[in-house]
């Protein structure tokens, strides 16, 4: 019989099997052992575009440095950016710091508990807002990240063009939203992977209409700006890395040599644009001292 995500019996069966599997096999990740909203927020921000193994290394160090939202808000942007070293995508650290300061002003140093309030904070999109609301405050809301979207599209493929959030909301159990959302992410991360999914190990294999016949997703051509075949974001990261290792401001000439030792004169305008964008984003500060332009992290 053809089953869809509107088949209540099929949905209930998938829910039972996934919840049972998650409760038996969930990894003991540190952010799953707390209900502290701030700690869960930090984990969710760190996990954006970063492997779990890397986050496991940085997560405890960051929390030792900034144990509370209030401590984070009281710190300088430069201190937070330095503590973020090795995580990449430094704008996440800056947004987290901005969020802490805004929460200190607006919510007396606490995080709000509803997705609608959370999504208005810096760097918080729909997924992160729902994740914090669910995992920290017990809200019965769906979460859709890359792993969840992939699992749902394979287990409930009848409406491949449907909004994944709509599908996620329709199949969300009335209870156990925490375990269900975590279970979908866990399954996508460990078994129902983008390439070579381990269908034989999947708790849903008997019922999944996509089992053993996964078609690899087509690669989408990147539209990132590049220079010398390297994305601009890599150069942005190198600039921040040089400034992170220096407690003083750095001259633009010295910075150029550190980031790209063989920078051609024709590339200086492009490099200046990199710095302009970083300054607009609040990642760096450019000042003039004795007629020399100098660059530093924001204090």
Q: In words, what does this structure look like?
A:
The protein is mainly alpha-helical and 299 residues long. It folds into 2 domains: 1-213, Orthogonal Bundle (Endonuclease III, domain 1), CATH 1.10.340.30; 226-296, Arc Repressor Mutant, subunit A, CATH 1.10.10. The chain has 14 helices and 5 strands. The strands form 2 sheets. The protein has a 3-stranded antiparallel sheet with strand order 3-5-4. Helix 1 crosses helix 11, helix 2 (37-46) runs antiparallel to helix 8 and helix 9 (146-155) crosses helix 11 (177-190). The chain is globular and about 75 Å long. The relative contact order is 0.11.
Please tally the β strands and state the result: 5
**Uncertain parts:** 1-5
- CATH classification class of the largest domain: Mainly Alpha
Anisotropy-based shape: globular
Secondary-structure element order, N to C: HHHHHHHHHHHEEHEHHEE
* Class per helix and strand makeup: mainly alpha
Largest sheet: 3 strands, antiparallel
Summed over residues and divided by their number, the pLDDT gives a mean of 91
* CATH fold node name of the largest domain: Endonuclease III, domain 1
Please name the fourth-level CATH homologous superfamily of the largest domain: Hypothetical protein, domain 2
Helices and strands in order:
Elements: H1 8-25, H2 37-46, H3 52-65, H4 69-74, H5 77-83, H6 91-106, H7 115-118, H8 126-137, H9 146-155, H10 164-171, H11 177-190, E1 226-227, E2 230-231, H12 232-244, E3 250-251, H13 252-259, H14 268-280, E4 285-289, E5 292-296
Antiparallel strand pairs: 1-2, 3-5, 4-5
Helix pairs in contact: 1-11, 2-8, 9-10, 9-11, 12-13
């Amino acid at each position: 019989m053809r089953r869809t995500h509107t088949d209540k019996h099929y949905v209930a069966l998938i829910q039972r099997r996934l919840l049972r599997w998650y409760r038996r096999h969930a990894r003991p990740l540190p952010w799953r052992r707390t209900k502290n909203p701030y700690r869960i927020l930090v984990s969710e921000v760190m996990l954006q575009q970063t492997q779990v193994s890397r986050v496991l290394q940085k997560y405890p160090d960051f929390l030792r440095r900034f144990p509370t939202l209030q401590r984070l808000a009281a710190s300088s942007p430069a201190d937070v950016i330095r503590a973020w070293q090795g995580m990449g995508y430094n704008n996440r650290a800056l947004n987290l710091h901005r969020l802490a300061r805004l929460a200190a002003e607006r919510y007396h140093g606490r995080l709000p508990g509803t997705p609608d309030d959370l999504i208005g904070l810096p760097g918080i999109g729909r997924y992160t807002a729902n994740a914090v609301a669910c995992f920290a405050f017990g809200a019965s809301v769906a979460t859709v990240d890359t792993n969840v979207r992939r699992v749902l599209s394979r287990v409930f493929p009848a409406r491949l063009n449907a909004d994944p959030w709509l599908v996620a909301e329709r199949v969300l159990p009335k209870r156990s939203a925490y375990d269900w959302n975590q279970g979908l992410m866990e399954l996508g991360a460990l078994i129902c992977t983008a390439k070579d999914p381990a269908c034989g190990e999947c708790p849903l294999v008997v019922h999944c209409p996509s089992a053993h016949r996964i078609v690899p997703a087509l690669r989408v051509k990147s539209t990132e700006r590049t220079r010398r075949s390297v994305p601009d974001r890599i150069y942005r990261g190198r600039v921040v890395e040089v400034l992170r290792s220096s407690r003083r401001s750095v001259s633009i000439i010295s910075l150029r040599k550190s980031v790209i030792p063989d920078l051609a004169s024709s590339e200086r305008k492009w490099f200046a644009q990199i710095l302009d964008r970083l300054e607009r984003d609040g990642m760096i500060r450019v000042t003039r001292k004795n007629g020399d332009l100098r660059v530093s992290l924001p204090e």
